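Write out this protein's structure.
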Amino acid sequence: MLDRCCRKCLGMLLKAEKITGGYRDRPIIKAVNLGIDRGEWLSIVGANGSGKSTLLRLLSRLLPPQHGTVLLSAKDIQTLSPTAIAQQLGFLPQQQILPPGLTVAQLVGLGRSPYQKWWQWELDAEDRKWVDFALQQTELQAYRDRPVTELSGGEKQRTFLALALARDPQILLLDEPTTFLDIHYQLQILDLLSRLNRERQLTIVTVLHDINLAARYSDRLAFLRQGQLWAIGSLSEVLTPENLKAVFDIEVAIVDTPVGKQIYPLSPIPD
């Protein structure tokens, strides 16, 4: 992975400046400041209802902020066209809508739509190159002609990841990409993302429910508590018993393992 100094040289790709937002004028996220450097992996963690998914939707412009600004490549994301955003940013929600009747290659090909003219119905040579690249990166070449409905959960997740990669994005935002997957497929997806982050300097922002997986794969963690940013920084800075107690209401031990620091839950904090 790029070291912290190198990322600073590349510059900040996505930045939230005092963003507040939610639903029906009810703020869920409150005055959050957040910066994501090019080439880093940031994971957003917190208790259920803390606003993790809402923050990701605000960062991707799927949800307009009630106050504050989100900058994508130093430009107000609200001023950018959907096409311009789609060419830079890929977003994978918790549950994807599966168009019926498509093969893997056809679904991945939809990722090229931000680069196509409105009258263009077929993929050109450049589009096919990126579809082939995305299938190769996600190890789906052998599945390209298979209907998506026939895939396993892990294969479907890789297919939607390939769809996002076909756009050649600079940054990927993923909301609980390991939800509903067993541990084998969880590690497979996260190992794939780690390789793309390392080899292609792809910037990644994930919402992860499992704090140990977040600690294992991420460069930095952002702790959310009741819609506010409680702590953000490297594992050594923020993965502490005090922060975990404040954010998750649990007592923990932090242990060194072959994959880095991991937490061992001891007991819940009484209500």
